[in-house]
Fold this sequence. Notes:
Keywords: Cell shape, Cell wall biogenesis/degradation, Isomerase, Peptidoglycan synthesis. This protein has eleven helices and ten strands.
Amino acid sequence: MYIGFLDSGIGGLTVLREALALLPNEDYLYYADSVHAPYGIKPKETVRRYIFDAVEFMVGQGIKALVVACNTATIVAANDLRTRYDFPIIGMEPAVKPAVEQNRGNHKRVLVTATPLSLKEEKFQNLVARVDDEHVVDLLPLPELVEYAQHFIFDDEVILPYLKEELAPFDLSHYGTIVLGCTHFPHYREAFRRLLPAGVAIIDGSSGTVRRLKNLLDEKGLLANRNEPGRIVFYTSGVLEEDPEKLQKYRELLTRK
């Protein structure tokens, strides 16, 4: 059976990349709901319906665990999914807590980037309220970055001016950490790095999510019992992806740093 990965598009490939490094012998089903992307600017109930439809399809293909490899989808639907299905469901959480903790006492601020829907949801707001006792967290929605990723636009001449404009209101010398709170954003890690002062950390929640996945599979006796590499199948909004050009782009992104 597969480990399912669900995202609105190609963002979850940044999480799958971590999973392939830690759990190379598993079979993976990656579901990109590209027909409905981006999730982060749509009404919550609309997104929730898309997610449940996608997961029901994935269940029909045979999954033993699900990674909701999308911060927006996790916030909107992960808890409800857990009440419906009894297999392990692992969601994403913006790495706000580790960002705050690693800056504690150094008088540096934390900038959390994510989609508009993620940033305004009560679950996220509660997370910030719980961990940001020194009031150092600032928020920056970057919806266009999701759109760029979905169209495989990674050119510096497009991305750098966009990020530079969005970051312009912030005095970046005051920040110790930037949180990439959408799984699409790590595709642009190097672009962020080029615009940030030396010493500013860039973190996301992918590695922690995959470690949690491995631990849960181990606890439940669901780890693959073989030595050869597993396989990956890709679906786009319920249709098996067979476009050679798109499949090649997916594979390239799985090896992109």
